[in-house]
Amino acid sequence: MTKTVQLISGNCGRIMPDSVSDYLKVGGYEALRKAFSMTPEQIIDEVISAKLLGRGGAAYPAGSKWKQLLDVEHFPKYIVCNADEGEPGTFKDKLLLSQDPLRVIEGMTIAGYVFNSQDGYIYIRGEYREIQKVFQNAVDNAIKAGFLGDNIMGSGYSYTIHIMTGAGAYVCGENSALLNSIEGIVGRPRIKPPHLAEVGLYKMPTLVNNVETFANIPVIVLMGGEKFLGYGAEDCGGTKLVCLSGHAARRGVYEVPLGVSLRDIIYDPELGGGLKNNKALKFFHLGGQSGPCGFPDQLNTPYAYKALRTIGLSVGSGAVVVMDDSVCIIEYLKGVTEFFIHESCGKCTPCREGNSRLHEILTRFTEGSATEQDLALLKRLSKTMTTASFCGLGQAATTALESCLKHALPEFEAHLAGQCPAGVCFTKEKAGEKK
Predict the structure, then answer these.
(1) Spatial contact of 351 and 342, defined as CB atoms under 8 Å apart
(2) CA 126 – CA 249 distance, rounded (Å)
(3) Full set of structural domains in the chain with CATH
(4) In Å, how far are 110, 195, 376 from 29, measured between CA atoms?
(5) Is there a contact between 7 and 255 (Cβ–Cβ < 8 Å)?
(6) What are the percentages of helix, strand and coil residues in the chain, rounded to 5?
(7) CB of 213 closer than 8 Å to CB of 51
(8) Which of 37, 105, 126, 369 minimizes the number of CB atoms within 10 Å of its CB?
């Protein structure tokens, strides 16, 4: 199997990002032209047969989401692109937004045509200020060239894309919180049901997909769903943009066919190239801070949604943070918990208070004062947060911790005995006192 493919990243670095003429030279807008000759049902059938799973992290089947919205009779319908890329270790949407924004715009326009939507919104994270300018230029140039705005390509269909931004709240990456933010109200998750396909932006039916998901739509329309599926695994078609960081020798964004192994992603010379300074791999964190940690004995697993789920891992946002044996797992988890303390919206008690209590317990481990009772409390509190938190932020805040308790319990037990395998947590004097 080829380790890298360029279905959606091929234009990056090769064309002027906001140039419509450059985009046309590499086949841009051929998919939109073809889409105008198809019915909405035919386009959705291709997305369904492609088995495109949402690339933002939830991995919900895009075709099913589109079919649900098509069946809703109320109008107007809105198209929303979630570009609030706040998951640590994730920077693949940034690549598309900054280097191939017209592909995303074309994907959103095809979606708009499918649902006869007049307005699309893209919510770009506040930290991407310079990228917002590039994207706005791309939108303006597409309007001038007749690929956005009134009577697109003489089809009689009109569509406008509005660029929105937030102030950097991680929780606004959750789709309903994002819609609240667009509406100018507090960016907190909504109670569901009703689902966004029925009651979304401005209380109207809404489609929300990730940047990478929309970037795949022109590819699917052009090549067809079956061919797209052939690039992936049995349960998920196409490719995935992965973001390698941490102690990987070759950090960056790579497009890989779904089904390559985790070992290939981290060690193949075309991809991660192993670890810096040839150090030993201790663990890797998949899908951002809300994802699970994986360990060396799981490296032969295919990087595909179902295959990873069967061993307790996930694709998530596409982040792959590689850590060598100089890292203390508990110190790392403290950093994860600090992130969620900072980003919790505070709406529900399990998340608001639970993350702070987790940090206190983990600190006792790193200071050498933790007890067996603390280990039991850590497990119990983690379960409570997962089951009782209001939204995905609190429910996923302990995912990394849970995976480490399952696969790296000896590290916790070593700290109870006053020993840090990485040698970074507490002094020998403290360890001696504990003994």
Answers:
(1) no
(2) 30
(3) 20-229 (3.40.50.11540), 239-324 (3.10.20.600), 329-434 (1.20.1440.230)
(4) 10, 32, 57
(5) yes
(6) 45, 15, 40
(7) no
(8) 37
Q: Which residue has the tokens 């649902």?
A: 115
Q: What gap in Å lies between CA 338 and CA 88, rounded to an integer?
A: 12
Q: Show Cβ contacts of residue 121 under 8 Å, excluding neighbours closer than 6 positions.
A: 78, 79, 80, 81, 161, 162, 163, 164, 182, 201
Is residue 248 helix, strand or coil?
A: strand
- Tell me 147's DSSP state: S
Sign of the alpha-carbon torsion through 154, 157, 158, 160 = negative
- What are the structure tokens assigned to 356, written together? 């702070």
- Sorted by sequence, the CB contacts under 8 Å of residue 27 that are 6+ apart come out as 222
**256 has which bridge partners?**
240
Q: What Cα–Cα distance (Å) separates residue 148 from each residue in 100, 180, 314? A: 16, 26, 36
What is the pLDDT at residue 1? 58
Taking CA atoms, 17 is separated from 38, 110, 182, in Å, by 28, 19, 25
150: number of CA atoms within 13 Å, CB side?
A: 0
Q: DSSP states of 398-432 as a string? A: THHHHHHHHH-HHHHHHHHTT--TTS-SS-HHHHH
Question: Per the structure block, which two tokens stand in for 395?
Answer: 């429910």
Q: Which value, to the nearest 10 degrees, does the dihedral of the CA atoms of residues 53, 59, 63, 65 take?
A: -160
- Contacts by 428-435, CB closer than 8 A, 24 or more apart: 430/367, 430/368, 431/368, 433/368, 434/368, 434/369
Length of the chain: 435
CA–CA separation, 417 and 409 (whole Å): 13
d(CA 130, CA 426): 43
Contact between residue 227 and residue 221 where contact means Cβ atoms under 8 Å apart: no
CA dist., res. 245 & res. 266, Å (int): 10
Strands, sheet with 293-294, edge to edge from the N-terminal-most edge strand: 252-257, 239-246, 319-324, 281-286, 293-294
For each successive 10 residues of the chain (435 residues), what is the average pLDDT? 87 97 98 98 98 92 97 96 94 98 98 98 95 97 98 97 90 93 92 93 97 98 96 93 97 96 96 95 96 97 96 95 97 96 91 95 95 95 94 92 96 95 73 43
For the sheet containing 160-165, what is the strand order?
160-165, 119-124, 78-83, 206-210
- Give the per-residue pLDDT at 392: 86
